[in-house]
Amino acid sequence: MRFLSDFLQYVELDSFLHRLDPRTKFVFFIIMSILTSFVKSGAALLFLFLVFLSIWLIGRIGKYMLVLANKVKVLLLFIFLLWLVLGAFSVHGGPLIYRTAFTLFGNHYVFSLEWYDFYKGAVYALRIFLMIAAFYTVILTTNFSQIILGLQSWRVPYAVAFGVGLVFQIIPMIVQEFATIMEAQKSRGLEVDKCGPLAKMKNYVIVSLPLLFRVLSKGHAISLAMHYYKLNFKVRRTSYKMIKATYSDVLFASATLVATVVTIILQLTYYIQI
């Protein structure tokens, strides 16, 4: 299927989310990035996930986000297990699953597995996913020129606007290159996932070297293109297409504001110290 190969790039669709003013989506990205950076309540994050899910369904990008979730599931599982292991060596006051004490090299340790440890791992994994999802929600529904045009309308210098837009294009490109290299290495017999921690670390180092050269090659190609087309940031630019906020933008911004307030209330009400 086509969307499996280009889920990291802008998708041309006629949806409510695609028709929004790019400035509205950029503000949404900033707000959601800030929210997911400090919200640590499971109830608040679950509500925020439902908000994202509603946006994806309305914007008809739900299948692309499923692919994204599948791509980052290893990372999310690693984060979950990491916090689970770290929490298992700390004693909390939550419901207990298993606890034992042992001595190693003269030091006394307590292994205490509690439901709180699973909660903490799930909270951090969901936070990371929502951070990534906020970024890709904008990428999937806003093309390169719209990002630049939206920033310029805020009187952001063209060089800065171009740089920000380029970042939104390059990061998905790097991730796509990494996925391509991983598939190529697997076809040659290099098993990256189904191996021990040390072997996995070594294999990722092996994969990172060709990725570095591919990224440098892409950067060089972009630099040459900018040079050949004589890109001059000092030239005043106009645009055939004008952007203008509509009633849909007011509706989306209002929904974002309400979701933000509810998330903060849930954070303050149901926060459990992590």
UniProtKB/TrEMBL annotation:
Pfam families: CbiQ (PF02361)
Entry-linked InterPro entries: ABC/ECF_trnsptr_transmembrane, ECF_transporter_component
CDD domains (alphabetical): EcfT
Membrane topology: Multi-pass membrane protein
Keywords: Cell membrane, Membrane, Transmembrane, Transmembrane helix
Record has Transmembrane as a keyword: yes
Major subcellular site: membrane
Compartmental location: Membrane
Record-annotated membrane-spanning stretches: 26-53, 74-98, 118-144, 156-175, 211-229, 250-272
Protein name: Energy-coupling factor transporter transmembrane protein EcfT
Organism: Sporolactobacillus mangiferae
